[in-house]
Amino acid sequence: MNISYKRNGTKTYLVANKEGAGDSDFREKMLTRNKIQYVAKMQPQIIDGSTLYYYDIQGKVSMSAVFAGKNMNCREIQHFLQALSVFFSETERYMLLPEEVVFDPDAIWLSPDTLDPEFIYVPGMKPDSSCSIEKLAVFLTEHTDCSDREAAEYAYNYLETVENGYYLPHITLSRDIPVGETDPPSSDPYIDLTDVPDVSGDIEADMSAVFEKQSSEAKKVYICLGIAGIAAIGYVLLVLYPSIFPFYLSDSEYMILGVGIAVVFALVLISVMHIYNKKRITDDMSCDTSSAAEHTQESSYPVTDTDFCTERECPSDQMYPVPDDDRTVLLKGPKPHRQGRGCPVLLKDGGGSILLAHFPFVVGKMKDRVDEVISDEGISRIHAMIKEKDGKYFISDLNSLNGTGVNGRMLDANETAEISDGDMVSLAGSSFTFRLA
Questions:
Q1: Mind listing the pLDDT tens digit for each residue in 329-380?
Q2: Are the C-beta atoms of 139 and 64 separated by less than 8 Å?
Q3: The whole model's pTM is what?
Q4: At what angle do helices 149-163 and 133-142 cross, to 10 degrees?
Q5: Across the beta sheet with 353-355, what order do the strands follow?
Q6: Which residue in 58, 207, 268, 363 has its CB near the most CB atoms, within 10 A?
Q7: Closest by alpha carbon to 327, among 160, 171, 197, 166?
Q8: Is 106 helix (H, G, I), strand (E, B) or coil?
Q9: CATH value of 1-199+316-333 in 1.10.510, 1.20.81, 2.60.40, 3.40.50
Q10: Is the CATH number of domain 345-435 1.10.20.10?
Q11: What is the spatial distance between Cα 112 and Cα 370, in angstroms, rounded to a whole number?
Q12: Which H or E run includes 47?
């Protein structure tokens, strides 16, 4: 898949070539005429006879860059998997094909504040292993905080799901983690029934209790309905078979009796409605009281790893219970740190320095997402990343607004350039000198 980046003023676009034709035109119209949740907005342009797809990624940072310096914790990976689940529901709704989605973490764009993803959908794209869902699943396992057991379970379980040939994450949508207003998918192609408890006995016991013990309000309803039913049957028999009764009525008396029966029916209906409303209000109050009592009781006891939590009971940072088994999850360990001498540095013009103690090393002004905070005006939240490979050093612009430069040349959006000892590096309006130890 051929992907490039272009700047147009303050706007940054990801550009992809059109590969397919025919039925891909239908999906192209779907993308351009609808606002699909978690799908990057696309506009086609014809240049020199070739169709190029332009995706607006201004203000977004690639997933690989966001989690290059900070691994995903449990809440972050759950949020991403929930968004991925909604995304697959949306693609099915608009008759889009999952194999035409670029699942390369370098081309999945996140909002630094909310971590909401935007996926690149290329109509007619031929399946490519570099863009497959398997690559995304492996990325999640390699960039999950290995010290967070719940996060490791989520990443490993989704990798296992993908290896079994499925796309949808096996995850329950949570109220505490916003994933948009779209309803969750109505069906999940991967449903594990091995852990579903047998509740048939509980249902039978509950139904028996309903029939054995009726509330006083229900008994009142039955009595009213019974009286109205007896009166109605008696009136019908009196009209159809007057001979079976020891008394006779005139026409006017029949009419008066019929009116009386109708009045009785009306009173019965009013009584039933009153009793029902009273019962519903009472039930709601008791339900609220019991819920508050349960919440108080739950907050008094810590939730352990082996407790089974429902969506209502679990706190926002408590996920699925982790099974206590012997399965080992192999994850990428924490990035190595190199302390003391031997670490490259960025020397800032006018004083100050940044010690590059590990790689990759991310700079910007968003404290929770970068390794070094640069508070200068013009620096993006996640601005640039420095890597080391085979003894060489590289700096990458991370779709920053004001750009990254090397020796006076401004890099394109998301471009990577090699840097050596003594090179001048500019981050927006700030200038640095790269020095090796």
A1: 444 444 554 544 568 999 999 889 999 999 999 999 998 889 999 988 899 9
A2: yes
A3: 0.62
A4: 160
A5: 353-355, 345-348, 430-435, 424-427, 404-406, 409-410
A6: 363
A7: 160
A8: helix
A9: 1.10.510
A10: no
A11: 11
A12: strand 42-47
